[in-house]
Amino acid sequence: MRLTHFLALAAMVMALDVAPATASATPSEGVAGETLAEARIGDKDYILTRITIAPGGTTGWHYHDGEPYGIITEGTLTHYDSDCAIDGIYNAGDTLIEPSGSGYVHMARNLGPVPMVLLALFVNPVGSPLSQEVPAPDCAQSL
Can you give the residue ranges of the Cupin type-2 domain (predicted)? Predict the structure, then answer.
């Protein structure tokens, strides 16, 4: 998805008159999530969140039933695939799109000295959680 599409979707969701709520968390350390807006259109839930990861924090290993589209607004996010290889380093202004499904297990960390802030729009099947917890892969012991 192009950045302009992401921003248009985010603006549409933010324009809705929806009360903020707390985002559900995956097994993590130093992660805070805040739901900014939610909308249900057809068979999809659109959930706009602000996710903050403290220095040294991690999301834990997980996957998404839907598709998250994000933009880093502060700090740096280091992203790992299921083989524990770094598959992306994202800085402020960078966009991030993650595939959906249990075939894309991953984890993200903030290895920097300042909080990392991510605005993420989740496009999920109705009623799905933002993420699904999974056990850490064997290679995670080396991280």
Answer: 50-121
